[in-house]
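FW: tagging you since you asked about this chain on Friday. Here's the raw sequence from the shared folder, copied in full. Didn't touch anything.
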Amino acid sequence: MNPTTLLELLAEVQRGTLSPESASQRLANLPFEDLGHARIDHHRGLRIGLPEVIYAAGKSPSQTAEIFTRMAATGADVLATRADDPTAKAVITAVPAAIHHSQARAITLRQSNHPEPKGHIAVVCAGTSDLPIAEEAAITAELFNTRVTRLYDVGVAGLHRLLAVREQLTTANAVIVCAGMEGALPSVVGGLVGVPVIAVPTSVGYGASFAGAAALLGMLNSCSPNVTVVNIDNGFGAAYTATLISRMAQS
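HL: got it, structure written out here
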């Protein structure tokens, strides 16, 4: 449930095409639905404009499939992150219209009729090894009805690659930059654009990268003041925040 779907529901009651009793049944699970193993926050879209998302890691395939099914039954768009192949199979068996994005480890279901996308985000990654995290960010933002420009494999080892896409960077309302190794790329991007840059350290690199900790510390110490940082490999969190930023920029 989000502000748009709520208004549509109330309009149906006003027109007489939906009975108050039926509307009441649809609203019965607000603000949350208790499944025993999970409490689904159906009210989140109304509060903040973006729906609850399923974090599939640590859940059994059947648990994720049940949560996904219950969320889909409300007519909302649904996203599950960090979904492995058995989980994706269980979800798609339960909800055949769902799509498994294997590289991003995400499962999506789009049901709502969106108008034009709100806001524009550029998703940048340093190398091909960072693609799973970059794609998690891109898929998340797109499901949230944000226009996404993908600019991949433009790391600082070949700075001319980044400069070649500079014009595309400057059209975005926010930029997500995914990088491992020493994590230098967000600082460089931050010096080229006048919008918020959300840095995502990835767990890519040799031993002393410490599974992304070196990139995280480098990004936290960025000399570019428009750079902020999310946790290691958290493409989803970066996209969630960038979506809100880009919406504000368009309002």
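FW: The longest strand covers residues 120-125.
HL: agreed, and Residues 120-250 form a domain with the Rossmann fold fold (CATH 3.40.50.1970).
FW: great, closing this out.
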